[in-house]
Amino acid sequence: MRKNLTVLAIALGLIATSANADQKTLAAIQDAGIELTEAQASELKAAKCNGSDCSALTEKVAEIVAANSDNDNAVSAILKAASSAHPEQATQFGEAAIAAAPNAVATIAQVMQETAATAAGGPPGNQGENGRSIVRGVANPNNNIPSPPGGGGSSSPS
Description:
- The chain is mainly α.
- 56% of the residues lie in helices and 3% in strands.
- A two-stranded antiparallel sheet has the order 1-2.
- The longest helix is centred in the N-terminal third of the chain and has 18 residues.
- About 19% of the residues have low confidence.
């Protein structure tokens, strides 16, 4: 009976390991219109997060960004797709991409800013609840204050 349980536990472990392969990130990047080589696709699919360590996946995403670093739209699409598949890794994807593709730093930084709220568990972009803009992670309470009537505010007669 113990042998059967041991064999079953090993089999389940193997199944769980292959289930951890990153099909989600691969699909997101391909759905974004990024063409990958067979090697890139298989390496990305095989990259796994082991607990909170997603360095293998982060490296593969950065390699794909570097391979497309001459195309700002592709860089943006890759990072947004990877971040949508793993919002908790958005910052790490951006940092690794900057190291791998320093010539695309402006585009990468822009995507990192756009995905920061999503990575923190909030809505995409720089909008908080009720459409208020986010300033350094805090809703800007002055965002929805209307201007005073009368316009210009000049005290001299026209």
